[in-house]
Amino acid sequence: MGADLSLHATADRLDYNISRKLALLRQLDSDSMQFKVLNIITQSFEVLGSSATTIPGSFLATIYFKYFYEDCALSVVFFNLMLAQLVNVIFTGGVKAMVRRKRPDYSSNNDMYLTHGPDIYSFPSGHALQMLLIVRFMFTYVVHGKLLSFVCGLCGIITFLRIFTGRHFVSDVLGGCLIGWYSFDLYVKFMWQTYTWF
Questions:
Q1: pTM given for the model
Q2: CA distance to 1, 30, 44, 48, 120, per residue, from 114 (Å)
């Protein structure tokens, strides 16, 4: 039992130290121009990768492909992506409420405008979870070279910025990535819808 606690404490300390070293934005002087510019850029990516943006984006893509582009197959894909994200928001909130891991103490979380409810907690990273879910959908159903490269690159940037900005520990992001990756399989197996509801 004591060895398990010691191992857990060592892993926590290692996670904290690595995460703090990678949180490069928080190592800059907050009054410097470099910090202010980087902060604006990283916050823009934060909003772009938020469920508050990606879920409406999936809804609009569903409408576009169904009624304007007349590609029913793609409209069903984006409809399912929207539903999968909604399910993951609820699941992530539940896990965060149970685990209740505090966000890094070296981060200023006063500018987290889209944070509410259990989202004040750190594990798992909701952004990383949603990004990996989107990547799985894109890889599996939307195989367009340039679009796929763009989305994967964007998801990679948003995921890394969760650590760079000090919003999350490395383990939060890795946990979010794993849950996002495998939640795709569970969604497709048990919840896939064969048509849109509108």
A1: 0.86
A2: 40, 21, 12, 11, 10
